[in-house]
Amino acid sequence: MLRQFLDKFWNEDVWLPPNTTWEDIAPGPDKAVEYTDYTHVFIPIPLALVFMVVRRALEKYWYEPFGKSLGIKDTRPRKAPTNPKLEEAYKQCSRLRQFTSLAKKLEMSERQVARWWRLRRSQDKPSTLVKFCENMWKFTFYLLNFSFGIFVLWDKEWLWDIDQCYIGYPHQGLSSDVWWYYMISSAFYWSLTISQFWDVRRKDFWQMFVHHIATIALLSFSWVCNLHRIGTLMLLLHDCADIFVESVKASKYANYQRLCDALFLALVVVWVLTRVVIYPFYIIWSTSVRAPMLLPMFPAYYIFNSLLCLLLALHIIWTWLILQIAYNAFKAGQMDGDIRSSSSELSDSPQNSNHSSPSRAKNKKVT
After folding, report:
1. Hey, what's the torsion of the CAs at 121, 123, 128, 129, to 10 degrees?
2. Which segments show compositional bias classed as Low complexity (predicted)?
3. Domain boundaries defined on the chain
4. Would you report the helix, strand and coil content of the chain in percent, each value rounded to 5?
5. Does residue 361 register a pLDDT over 60?
6. Out of 95-99, 255-259, 309-313, which region has the weakest mean confidence (pLDDT)?
7. Terminal CA-to-CA distance of the chain, rounded, Å?
8. Taking the model in full, what pTM does it have?
């Protein structure tokens, strides 16, 4: 039963160009080029666990001491008084807004219930140091992976001529450095997908979850179908902007306002250039217009293109959020708030931010 399902799912007429079989692109000593091995698509999963162990070690022995040296405190809010009935209601729905019925049921005033609820929700908020460590881990990876990607792709012809992603497909050879670049990048996105459920929970939780799943699907299917060339360009383009996303957050949590403002300005420029200009008008235009001119189309290619367009939709949403923050920052005179998302409980918006710069605090006191 399972074998029949797999045979239908991996139908060659769906996943490969016309007149091409899985045997044609299977790796082997008698082949003219080195093809991707479909079994390697599972290697990033255990490698993701290694990433999570490395991350934990870096956070404990490097990022936390570094953050504390910058004056970032690992303070926790005051705990709510013990109340089993309220605790049970909180576990059922932590986002309760109307306390009237609950207060009557427990014979308490609405004010008492609301106050307990605020304290209880505050307990679940991560400290600034925890958020700083998370951003520093992502910043470190994106910076190193982007540098590694530049090193790997610098001498590759498809970096400079995107048509080379399709010319000669599917008989395109795989080098060991591209293999490592793919495996490392896939493992990192697997680790983010797993750890997202206990990391700092942000308002765009499900958007990020869809983004990670779509990215993993793109990497996995492109690997199986030997479309690794266009996949490497996607990775390089996305890592570039994410470096600034995480560095802006980390500098904000460390209260380095001037550095944060400079990095945020660079983020706006790099993000718009890579995600809103190069990505749709170079990558997607190439996959949608140039690819059909250079190779015969097959159903799986439309699946890949749909996933690329899904990522573009997420990019547009995040671009709108970033531009909103940029507009508010221009009015306020400094960058305030979280980039691309904010904590689901602790608002980092310009109107509610508790991370004011020293100069601003001084001016308020004088006033």
Report:
1. -150
2. 341-353
3. 28-69+127-366, 84-123
4. 70, 0, 30
5. no
6. 95-99
7. 76
8. 0.81
The confidence score (pLDDT) of residue 270 equals 96
Residue 117 corresponds to which tokens in the numbers above?
């609820």
Average pLDDT of the chain, as a whole number: 83
Q: Rounded distance, CA 100 to CA 93, Å? A: 15
Nearest CA-CA partner of 294 in 236, 233, 217, 229: 229
Higher pLDDT pick, 198 / 176 = 176
Residues in the chain: 367
Alpha helices in the chain (DSSP H): 2-9, 12-15, 44-58, 64-69, 84-92, 100-106, 110-123, 128-153, 157-160, 176-195, 205-224, 228-253, 257-271, 285, 291-294, 299-332, 358-366
Q: How far apart are CA 208 and CA 228, in angstroms?
A: 23
Q: What does the pLDDT look like over 214-254, one tens digit per residue?
A: 899 999 989 999 999 999 999 999 999 999 999 999 999 99
3-class SS string, 93-108: CCCCCCCHHHHHHHCC
Residue 156: Cβ-neighbour burial (10 angstroms; 0-12, 13-18, 19+): middle
Cα separation, 358 vs 258, in Å, equals 11
Q: Which amino acid is at 251?
A: S
Task: State what percent of residues in the chain have pLDDT above 70.
Answer: 82
Task: Spell out the residues 6+ positions from residue 278 whose beta carbon is closer than 8 angstroms to its own.
Answer: 237
